[in-house]
Design goal:
By secondary structure, this protein is mostly helical. Among the domains are: 179 residues, Penicillin binding protein transpeptidase fold, CATH 1.10.3810.10; 98 residues, DD-peptidase/beta-lactamase superfamily (Beta-lactamase), CATH 3.40.710.10. Helix content is 47%, strand content 7%. The strands form 4 sheets. It has a 3-stranded mixed beta sheet, covered by helices on one side. Helix 2 crosses helix 10 and helix 4 packs across helix 5. It is elongated and about 105 Å long.
Length: 466
C-alpha cells in the first residue's frame, strides 16, 4: 500500500507540472499571436511637438523628447557593458527572467537598510515599459514574466537591448539613449565615453531623482557604482575603472522653450491634429505673429493692472489668431481668460442688435428714438445721461445708445438678436429678455473677437484658428 500511494503521488505531481507547463506555453503562444510586437518599438510617452510662430520661430514645446532608435550591435562595447553591468549582468545568458538576480535582490532587501534593490531583467523592464502599467501587483508581475519569455522567443538579445535603450527614461523628460546623449553631453550615442555612458546607465534606476542637471552629485555617486559593477563583472580592469573620471555635463545652450503659454494651451489640440499620430518629434507652424504677441505682452505689462486680470485676442479677418494673452501671468494662473472665461460683453454685444435690425429691413439711415424708455419694470439709460431724440441708425450705433439698443431688441424680438449672435459664432447661453441688447449675457473673448472678424471679413461665421 505505501508503494502504491507513493506512485500515485508522483503521478499527480508529474501531471500537475505537465499541465502548468502546457498552460504556460499556451499563454506565451497567445501573446505571440495577439500582442503587437511593434509596441516595444513605440515610445512610452507622447513625443514632443514644437509650436512655431507664423514666421517659423519656436514659441513653445510640449511632450517628451524622444531620441531616434539605436542599434545596440553598432554601439561601442563599453556602452552596452555599462547598462548590462548595473541593470542585468546575466542578460546574455538568461531567458528573460533571472532567478539568481531575483534571489540576490530578495536577500539584499531583507538584510540591508539601503535602498531596495530590484530583480527585474532588462527584458522585464522592456516588457513593463512597453506593455504594462506601473501597478505593483502579483497579476502584473506574472504578465511581465510571460511577456519577457515571449520577447526572448521572438527577438534576439541585441534587438531586446536596442529597444530597451531606445525607450528607457533618463530624466528631464528625455527618453532613449540618443536623446539623453544629446541632452546631457551634446553628442551622438555612438560618441559617448566610458565616463558619460556609465553616468547615463546609472540614471535608469531613478531618473527623476538622479537627473544630473538638478542632482549632479547624486548622478556622479551612482556613476561610481556603475564603474564598480563593470570592474566586478570583468568588463573593465581595476586600472581602467580607476582611470574613469566623473562625467562632465555639456548641456546645449539652446533657448529653453516654455512648456505652456496661453496660446500654446489653446492651439495644441489643433496642432496635434495637424501633426497626426507620429512617433518622433514634430514641428507645427501656428498663426501667432511674433511681433504682435510681443506687443500684446508689453501692453499687459504696462497697463498698471495691480491685482486686476486681463485678456487680449488679436485676430486677422479670416480667423487667424496672431496674439493671445489670457492673464497677467501664466505661471501664476494658467487659466485662460481669453478662451475659458465668460464675461458680460456690455456694449460690444450691440453689434448683433444692429445686425438684426438690418436683417429686418432697416437701413443705416432709418430713424430711431434716442430718448428715455421703460420696458416693463426695466428702465435702461444712456451711460452719459444724454439723449439726442430722433437720430439715424448709423448715429445711434456710433454713439452706442443704450436706449436705442433696448428699443430695437424689444421691437425686433429677442430671438432675432439671439440668432444674429449665433450666426456670428456666439455659442454661450443667451438670456431671454431685452437686456441682452446691452450685453448682459456672458461670452468668451475669443468668440466675440471672431464675431467682429466676420464683419471685417464680409462673411460669417469666422472660425478662430491657430
Amino acid at each position: 500500500m505505501p508503494v502504491a500511494y507513493k506512485k500515485r503521488s508522483w503521478k499527480w505531481l508529474t501531471r500537475s507540472i505537465a499541465a502548468f507547463v502546457i498552460l504556460f506555453i499556451i499563454a506565451v503562444a497567445w501573446l505571440a499571436l495577439t500582442a503587437p510586437l511593434s509596441k516595444s518599438l513605440q515610445p512610452p510617452a507622447p513625443p514632443s511637438i514644437t509650436l512655431l510662430s507664423a514666421e517659423g520661430k519656436p514659441i513653445a514645446r510640449r511632450g517628451a523628447v524622444i531620441g531616434a532608435p539605436v542599434d545596440a550591435a553598432k554601439l561601442p562595447k563599453h556602452i552596452r557593458d555599462a547598462f548590462i553591468a548595473i541593470e542585468d549582468r546575466r542578460f546574455y545568458s538568461h531567458m528573460g527572467v533571472d532567478p539568481r538576480g531575483i534571489m540576490r535582490a530578495f536577500v539584499h532587501n531583507i538584510t540591508s537598510d539601503d535602498r531596495s534593490q530590484g530583480g527585474s531583467t532588462i527584458t522585464q523592464q522592456l516588457a513593463k515599459n512597453a506593455f504594462l502599467s506601473s501597478d505593483r501587483t502579483a497579476a502584473r508581475k506574472f504578465q511581465e514574466v510571460l511577456i519577457s519569455f515571449w520577447l526572448e522567443g521572438w527577438l534576439s538579445k541585441d534587438e531586446i537591448l536596442s529597444r530597451y535603450l531606445s525607450n528607457v527614461y533618463f530624466g528631464d523628460n528625455v527618453y532613449g539613449l540618443s536623446a539623453a546623449a544629446q541632452h546631457y553631453f551634446s553628442c551622438g550615442p555612438e560618441d559617448l565615453t566610458v565616463s558619460q555612458a556609465s553616468m547615463l546607465a546609472g540614471l535608469v534606476q531613478a531618473p527623476s531623482r538622479l537627473a544630473p542637471t538638478g542632482n549632479l552629485k547624486g548622478a556622479r555617486d551612482r556613476q561610481k557604482l556603475v564603474i564598480g559593477a563593470m570592474v566586478s563583472a570583468g568588463l573593465l580592469t581595476k586600472e581602467q575603472g580607476a582611470a574613469v573620471k566623473p562625467a562632465v555635463l555639456k548641456v546645449g545652450k539652446t533657448r529653453e522653450l516654455p512648456n505652456g503659454t496661453y496660446f500654446a494651451d489653446w492651439v495644441l489640440p489643433q496642432a496635434r491634429d495637424r501633426a497626426g499620430e507620429v512617433a518622433t518629434e514634430q514641428e507645427v507652424q501656428t498663426t501667432l505673429e511674433f511681433a504682435a504677441q510681443q506687443a500684446a505682452e508689453r501692453a499687459v505689462k504696462n497697463a498698471g493692472l495691480n491685482r486686476s486680470q486681463i485678456a487680449i485676442v488679436a485676430m486677422r479677418p479670416d480667423g487667424r489668431v496672431i496674439a493671445m494673452v489670457g492673464g497677467r501671468n501664466y505661471a501664476a494662473s494658467p487659466f485662460n481668460r481669453a478662451t475659458q472665461a465668460r464675461r458680460q460683453p456690455g456694449s460690444t454685444f450691440k453689434l448683433f442688435v444692429y445686425l438684426a435690425a438690418l436683417r429686418a429691413g432697416m437701413t443705416p439711415d432709418s430713424i430711431v428714438d434716442d430718448s428715455p424708455v421703460q420696458i416693463g419694470d426695466w428702465k435702461p439709460s444712456n451711460s452719459d445721461g444724454r439723449y439726442a431724440g430722433k437720430i439715424s441708425l448709423r448715429q445711434a450705433f456710433a454713439k452706442s445708445s443704450n436706449v436705442v439698443a433696448a428699443r430695437l431688441t424689444h421691437r425686433l424680438g429677442i430671438g432675432a438678436v439671439t440668432q444674429a449672435a449665433r450666426d456670428l459664432g456666439i455659442s454661450t447661453p443667451i438670456g431671454n429678455d431685452a437686456s441682452i441688447g446691452l450685453g448682459t449675457s456672458t461670452v468668451s473673448l475669443l468668440e466675440l473677437t471672431a464675431a467682429y472678424a466676420s464683419i471685417a471679413n464680409g462673411s460669417y461665421p469666422v472660425r478662430p484658428q491657430g
